[in-house]
Structure formats: structure tokens, C-alpha cells
């Protein structure tokens, strides 16, 4: 059975949980608390799995894969049904483009390690600034690519990246009213079972006060 090293609130871990749920892959979670004990990602044991000291890490098929997009690409290549990437090459490129925009252009700038660097008093303002900048671009792109979801009417890797990032935006109290397309797609996706079972509020390591 695959093993996912995950933290309930990590948006990158959430992406992989959604992908695993979407593809119907049964797996075991090993929680890695990014805050407790000074951060369990810094233990020697975990660093042997991921020298970058980040979650997620997925043990599957005799290998360990880190980086959420690389994990999803591997799942797509080895377990292609249902699809995370469209068959059409142009749509596939658009899905990857949106996924990269979120996974490279927004999320890393407001993750835990960066927020520690900007200092406690600046964290909220910094996170709001980088998310808003990214969402300004993303909203424009989605206005031309979206159907029911990010690219047409099929759930794709772009959607898997979108929902956790919107949750981050809500956590940092970003005003989402300028982003009707993002908000609408997010609402449609959160109604789907795979996004609900993988939600941070429903994980084995979710604190009792945050559970639903």
C-alpha cells in the first residue's frame, strides 16, 4: 500500500491527497507535523526521504517521490484512468501552465519557510500581496480556459492545485470578490467527494478543534 507523508494543512500534501482519491488509490498516511517539535520535517529520518525537508513524500511502487506535481505526473503515467491531464496536447499544456502558475508562482512565496523569513508582524500582509498578485493573473487566464472547472468540464491537475490555494487565500483573509471565476470553480470542486475526503479538516492529524 502506498505511504503518503503528509501534513493536514499543507496545500502541497492536499494536492496529492486529492489526486490519490480521484484515482481511487488506497494509501496510508504518515503525519509529519511541520510545527511540532521544531518541525518533524527536519528529523534525520525524514530528511533521508526528502532532503528538501518538505511534505509531501509518496512511497509507491518501490520508489519515493517528492514534489506534488512530480507525484501527480507519475500517478498519471502509471494509473491513467481517470485522467488528470487532458488527451488534447493544447489543453494538456494549459493544465500544466495553470498548475505551474499556482505551484511555482504563488504557493512557495507564502509557505511556512518564507513566512518565517519575513517576520511575524509582516506575514499576513506579505501573504496577501503574493496571493493577490498571482490571483490577478490566474483570474484572467481562467476567464478564457474555464468551463465548469479550470480547463473545460473535466477535473484536471489544475483544479487539484486550485482548491488548496484558494483555502490558503481564505486563511490569509484575501478578498476574493475580484476573482469570480476562481471562486465559482472552487465552489464547484468543493462539492465533489474527492475534494471533501482529502480536505484538511478531515485528516488523521487534524487537531480536534479544526475537524468537521
TrEMBL record:
Q: Which Gene Ontology BP annotations are present?
A: glutathione metabolic process; L-phenylalanine catabolic process; L-tyrosine catabolic process
Matching entries from PROSITE patterns are given as: GST_CTER, GST_NTER
This enzyme catalyses:
4-maleylacetoacetate = 4-fumarylacetoacetate; RX + glutathione = an S-substituted glutathione + a halide anion + H(+)
* Residue ranges of domain GST N-terminal in the record: 1-83
An example Gene Ontology molecular-function term = glutathione transferase activity
Assigned EC number:
2.5.1.18, 5.2.1.2
Task: Cite the entry's keywords alphabetically.
Answer: Cytoplasm, Isomerase, Phenylalanine catabolism, Transferase, Tyrosine catabolism
Tell me the superkingdom of the source. Eukaryota
Tell me which residues make up the GST C-terminal domain. Answer: 88-208
Q: Quick check: keyword Cytoplasm in the entry?
A: yes
* Signal peptide limits: none
Q: Where in the cell is it found?
A: Cytoplasm
Q: In which pathway does it act?
A: Amino-acid degradation; L-phenylalanine degradation; acetoacetate and fumarate from L-phenylalanine: step 5/6
Which InterPro entries would you find in this protein's record? Glutathione-S-Trfase_C-like, Glutathione-S-Trfase_C_sf, Glutathione_S-Trfase, Glutathione_S-Trfase_N, GST_C, GST_Zeta, GST_Zeta_C, GST_Zeta_N
Q: Which Pfam families match?
A: GST_C_3 (PF14497), GST_N (PF02798)
| Cited SUPFAM superfamilies | GST C-terminal domain-like (SSF47616), Thioredoxin-like (SSF52833)
Could you say which protein family the record assigns here?
A: Belongs to the GST superfamily. Zeta family.
Q: What is this protein called?
A: Maleylacetoacetate isomerase
Gene (UniProt): Gstz1_1
